[in-house]
Amino acid sequence: MFAAYHQGFREQTKEWPVRPLDLCVRWLRTQPSTAAVADFGCGDAELARAAPQTTVHSFDLESDAPGVVACNMAQVPLPDASVEVAVFSLSLMAGTSTLNPQPSTLNPQPLHLNSEAYA
Predict the structure, then answer these.
(1) Predicted local distance difference test score (pLDDT) of residue 19
(2) Which domain, by its residues, includes 58?
(3) How much is the pTM?
(4) Which of 42, 64, 93, 103 lies at a 20 to 30 A Cα distance from 114?
(5) What is the largest CA-CA distance in the chain?
């Protein structure tokens, strides 16, 4: 089911005039390469391949892409205060009520980049 979802999503975004992921990558190129990034709802981890940062953690509920950690976004396996940038790519759809999946994961002043679809 998730493989079909991810494939359908990739096909759908080909027709979007602007992909939010491209905007995230453009912004990340203006940030230090040492800034740790966490991509929540990463799909096939395209952000990790495109971002210039040395450390990009990729999380999705389910994915067979290399480097992706499959987990619930509310329980990501990261140490406290280990991330400066959090990117939410359609990861709030499953009823997650907070923008911060695990409060201790992010540094005291993190930046959230949200990529959510609204109908």
Answers:
(1) 81
(2) 2-115
(3) 0.76
(4) 64
(5) 38
